[in-house]
Amino acid sequence: MKRKVFDRRNWQRVVGGGEQTTLVVPSGVIVDYRAGEVHSPLVVPFENRTLRILDTGYRWVHYAPTAAKHALTLQLDEAGHIRQLYIDIGEASGVGAEGLPWIDDLYLDVVGMVEVQPGGEWHVTKTEVLDEDELDEALRLGHILPKQYTAAWSGAHAVLSGLKAHTFAPLDVLRRYLQDPYT
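Structure for DUF402 domain-containing protein, as requested:
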């Protein structure tokens, strides 16, 4: 298991650095990163196609709810359109000395597509669980315990259920933030 710190300021893919702001909200911490010049765009597979999730001017807006076992990142293109949502499943989370959120990653991730409705509501239309093989290998090699393996799957299923029912609260926090970043 590794600790992920949500800090993109020194990302090797980005030549021109970028801008990063951190905002503490009552329910957690938001880290908003806009990429500078990207020398190597990030393209990932999703449902039989490829999806560009990082290029010059793209934003990664991360939300770490207080004491949650998951964290949400929205990846937006230079025009502000959501390219993908990405949810890390973890065992524990917190905020480090620099004020940046972290999560003890349990390997599984949930990704999805978001449709913005005419009234401004967001609907998650497709989801996928990633890195099951990494979770299986971590268990096989003894890097995690069976109870952590079970917790990872329980966490992923809870996130999927919340996304499907349109009740995954972190998504609403980021929707409101993107509509008005200072509230």
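Residues 146-164 form the longest helix (19 residues).
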